[in-house]
Amino acid sequence: MADHGPTTMELVEVKADDIIGERRSFYEHFLTGTTWAVAATIVVLLLMWIFLV
């Protein structure tokens, strides 16, 4: 096996304030995507109803 030199790792405390902005951004994108998906589904169903019935 390869020889590895001494490694040191420094752990930093993670606080909620550090990640809350990123989580909010993910949630906002999720809500926007969900809204567009529901709207697209409704449009597809309406088009199916118009053209297939």
TrEMBL record:
<keyword id="KW-0812">Transmembrane</keyword>
<feature type="domain" description="Cytochrome c oxidase subunit IV bacterial aa3 type">
    <location>
        <begin position="25"/>
        <end position="52"/>
    </location>
</feature>
<dbReference type="Pfam" id="PF07835">
    <property type="entry name" value="COX4_pro_2"/>
</dbReference>
<protein>
    <submittedName>
        <fullName>Preprotein translocase subunit SecE</fullName>
    </submittedName>
</protein>
<dbReference type="InterPro" id="IPR012422">
    <property type="entry name" value="Cyt_c_oxidase_su4_bac-aa3"/>
</dbReference>
<keyword id="KW-0472">Membrane</keyword>
<keyword id="KW-1133">Transmembrane helix</keyword>
<dbReference type="InterPro" id="IPR036596">
    <property type="entry name" value="Cyt-C_aa3_sf"/>
</dbReference>
<feature type="transmembrane region" description="Helical">
    <location>
        <begin position="30"/>
        <end position="52"/>
    </location>
</feature>
